Amino acid sequence: MARKVFFSFHYNPDNSRASQVRNMGVIEGNAPVTDNDWEKVKGGGDAAISKWIAEQLEGKSCTVVLVGENTAGRKWITHEIIESWNGKKGVVGIRIHKLKDLNQAQARIGGNPFDSVSLGDNKLTACAKLYEPPYSDSKQVYNYIKENLSVWVEEAITIRGNYS
């Protein structure tokens, strides 16, 4: 049975890249939100966004952070990572900047979003892994992610289980 995961990503620039990963069918992810639905959630303010995130995380065993050029340091990405970790879910990052978007463009590499999260005296970077496919061709990047995604999710769940 496929693991149920929450996908965290910067919506506007990375939605098409994230869709490629979500549609691989390797793991079961949260249902995509439409532009209209997301605007409705955002219109409710911070409390509504936080509530929506909490609802999306229910029943998930891992959060997969799809890391694009501007993902690191974003308020709600960081919130999703913290809520996932505190909820005892696995957390793993995958760089997606080399996947082509709808305009057939790749992006620049971004920072590590786990650097924004502290675990006592350490950063989450010390235990949450961020994978970067070793290719520059979008098709090879896609295939690499597809071949490894379920393994990375299982590894993240195991890593999280090692921390109380």
Task: Describe the model.
It contains five helices and seven strands, in the order E-H-E-H-H-E-H-E-E-E-E-H. The chain has a single domain, classed as Rossmann fold (3-Layer(aba) Sandwich), CATH 3.40.50.450. The chain is α/β, with parallel strands linked by helices and 164 residues long. The strands form two sheets. A five-stranded parallel β-sheet has the order 2-1-3-4-7. A two-stranded antiparallel sheet has the order 5-6. Strand 3, helix 4 and strand 4 (90-95) form a beta-alpha-beta unit.
Please outline the helices and strands:
Blueprint: E1 4-8, H1 11-22, E2 28-29, H2 35-43, H3 45-57, E3 62-67, H4 75-86, E4 90-95, E5 118-119, E6 122-123, E7 130-131, H5 138-161
Parallel strand pairs: 1-2, 1-3, 3-4, 4-7
Antiparallel strand pairs: 5-6
Helix pairs in contact: 3-4
How do you describe this structure in short?
The protein is an alpha/beta fold and 164 residues long. 43% of the residues lie in helices and 15% in strands.
Q: Structural class of the secondary structure composition?
A: alpha/beta
The major beta sheet can be summarized as: 5 strands, parallel
Low-confidence stretches: none
- Helix coverage percent: 40-55%
Number of helical segments with 4 or more residues: 5
Note the gap between the termini. 26 Å
Strands across the major sheet, in which order? 2-1-3-4-7
Q: In the residues, how many domains can be counted? A: 1
- Provide the CATH architecture: 3-Layer(aba) Sandwich
- Give the mean pLDDT: 92
Which geometry do the CA atoms define? globular
The ordered H/E elements are EHEHHEHEEEEH
Report the CATH topology name.
Answer: Rossmann fold
Report the radius of gyration as a whole number of Å.
15 Å
Number of separate strands: 7
Per DSSP, what share of the residues sits in E-state strands of 2 or more residues? 15-25%
Question: Given this structure, which CATH class is correct?
Answer: Alpha Beta
